[in-house]
Amino acid sequence: MKVFCLLFFKKVRERKIQMTTRITELLGIKYPIIQGGMAWIAESTLAAAVSNAGGLGLIAGGSAPIDYLRDQIRKTKELTDKPFGVNIMLMSPNAEELAQLVIDENVPVVTTGAGNPGKFIAAWKEAGIKIIPVIPSVALAKRMERAGADAVVAEGTESGGHIGENTTMCLVPQVADAVEIPVIAAGGIADGRGIAASFMLGAEGVQVGTRFLASEECQIHSTYKQLVVDAKDTDNVVTGRTTGHPCRNVKTKFAKKLASGEMNGTITPDEFEEITLGSLRKAVQDGNLEEGSFLCGLIAGMVNDVKPCKDIIEEMFEQAQKLMNK
After folding, report:
1. What kind and span of H or E run contains 21?
2. pTM of the full predicted structure?
3. 211-241 as b/e, with b when 16 or more CB fall inside 10 Å?
4. Are 189 and 297 within 8 A, CB to CB?
5. 272: which residues sit within 8 A by CB, 6+ positions away?
6. What phi-psi label fits residue 112: left (phi over 0), alpha (psi between -120 and 50 degrees) or beta?
7. Among positive and negative, which fits the CA dihedral 183, 186, 191, 196?
8. Integer Cα distance of 164 and 203 in angstroms
9. Ramachandran area for residue 247 (φ above 0: left; ψ -120 to 50: alpha; else beta)
10. Which contiguous run of DSSP H or E holds residue 305?
11. Longest distance between any two alpha carbons in the chain, whole Å
12. Distance CA 295, CA 126 (A)
């Protein structure tokens, strides 16, 4: 396996670790960690907090109005002078507008999901934007490298939200073997052990979503945050398989009802789409347990407290350093 992960650790003061990889050099960040672009969740407050803590914060594009996203980008610039990015879901109806918005607003980094960003890459590169697609397979990783991507996020099925079928442990080393550009591991990473394991698999950075749900700066409803903190290893369910867009959720009565209805045929794909329309917003903003989809990764059982993003990141990389030094 090709391993490009040359790590240099520097103890700059207690609990502060400097880790250099091609990802930190590419993005101009202190720690090789990207915050997941979680729709309706990843906004300016969270993105700026992660960037100020030394990672790369992301604003989620999703299907939000362009005026709102423009405002979030500008607010992030007010809250941090560090690099940040925007995640673009290519299946969103406003993807074309958002692809132009990141150019107009001089966003330094774009991550993409749910599609092929090929038609936007030339314009983004001309604007000096770093491009990091999220990919679920080796084939798509190779395709993105040929198209000019600067790195890829190899995301395993352990992740929250939209998922593929390949696990992180299987996907990451195969992608690392297949491409020359840096690989970022995602799915099931919430502490330094996950970071160290990712580097052993050939990654040069990690993307973390679920752990940041339980950060002080994350603006989700308190009910949502508490569900993540209270979750056990089995409090997880996948819905949406019949629609072709499976999503991983906290196991609530609503989520179990959806999954059961899909399995026994009492909920058709069209009915599923109708029932879940706006359900993520209802979870994030209202904490609505009856109609909300609380998207969350399998690793939630390891998330037991709420902390500032800075503490989360520093603790993760302190633990990773100790493990890597062994």
Report:
1. none
2. 0.90
3. bbbbbebbebbeebbebbeebeeebbbbbbe
4. no
5. 239, 240, 242, 243, 258, 261, 262
6. beta
7. negative
8. 19
9. beta
10. none
11. 58
12. 35
- Extract the tokens encoding 170: 């299987």
Dihedral over Cα of 254, 259, 262, 266: its sign:
negative
What are the structural domain ranges in the chain?
8-218+302-325, 232-295
HSE toward the beta carbon, residue 253, CA cutoff 13 A: 4
Residue position matching structure tokens 């299987």? 170
Query: 56 with 29: CB under 8 angstroms?
Result: yes
Q: What angle do CA 226, 257, 259 make, to 5 degrees?
A: 95
**Tokens read off for 14:** 């207690």
For residue 1, the SS3 value is coil
Provide the strand spans (E) within the chain: 8-13, 16-20, 33-35, 57-60, 84-89, 109-113, 130-135, 152-155, 161-162, 183-186, 205-208, 236-239, 247-250
What are the C-alpha distances in Å from 319 to residues 90, 190, 197, 309? 35, 11, 12, 16
Q: 8-218+302-325: what fold? A: TIM Barrel (3.20.20)
pLDDT by 10s per residue, the chain, length 326:
444 444 444 443 344 456 789 999 999 999 999 999 998 899 999 999 999 999 999 999 877 889 999 999 999 999 999 999 999 988 888 888 999 999 999 999 999 988 788 889 999 999 999 999 999 999 999 999 999 999 999 999 998 888 888 899 999 999 999 999 999 999 999 999 999 999 999 999 999 999 999 999 999 999 999 999 999 999 999 988 888 888 899 999 999 999 999 888 898 888 888 888 888 899 999 999 999 999 999 999 999 999 999 999 999 999 999 998 87
Nearest to 95 by CA among 74, 72, 115: 115
C-alpha–C-alpha distance, residues 302 and 305, integer Å = 9
Of the candidates 100, 99, 85, 104, the one whose C-alpha atom is nearest the C-alpha of residue 44 is: 85
